[in-house]
């Protein structure tokens, strides 16, 4: 059975559970904490580009058009490609 973690949306009171084998964006949509619109859910469109604050997460390949190596080092990722390995906080990218 997959471990469950809590993901919080920064500067809001929204939280949602996410299994370690589930993409954070899918859990966000199911938990109704996400945006009303979403794109491909496969790492190509960039709709779910956000900053992840947390120590442990795994990610699948993402489009370099939306997330650079420098972005990744700052925790900026596509949430559809991220799976938690600990509790996380996500925040919109402001720049």
User: What distance separates the N and C termini?
Assistant: 38 Å
Q: What class, by secondary structure content?
A: alpha+beta
> Major sheet, described briefly?
5 strands, mixed
**CATH structural class:** Alpha Beta
CATH architecture: Roll
CATH fold-level assignment = Ubiquitin-like (UB roll)
What average pLDDT do the residues reach?
Answer: 86
Total separate domains: 1
Rg (CA only): 12 Å
Low-confidence stretches: none
Number of helices: 2
* Residues in helix, %: 10-25%
* Sheet with the most strands: spatial strand order: 2-1-7-3-5
Assign the CATH superfamily. Answer: Beta-grasp domain
Q: Looking at the structure, what is the overall shape?
A: globular
Total E-strand runs: 7
List the helices and strands in order: EEHEEHEEE
Measured by DSSP, the beta-strand proportion falls in 25-35%
């Amino acid at each position: 059975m997959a471990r469950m973690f809590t993901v919080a949306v920064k500067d809001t009171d929204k939280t949602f559970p996410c299994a370690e084998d589930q993409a954070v964006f899918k859990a966000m949509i199911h938990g109704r904490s996400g945006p009303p619109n979403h794109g491909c859910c496969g790492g190509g469109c960039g709709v779910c580009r956000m900053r992840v604050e947390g120590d442990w997460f795994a990610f699948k390949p993402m489009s370099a058009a939306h997330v650079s190596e420098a972005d990744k080092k700052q925790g900026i990722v596509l949430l559809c490609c991220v799976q938690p390995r600990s509790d996380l906080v996500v925040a919109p990218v402001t720049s």
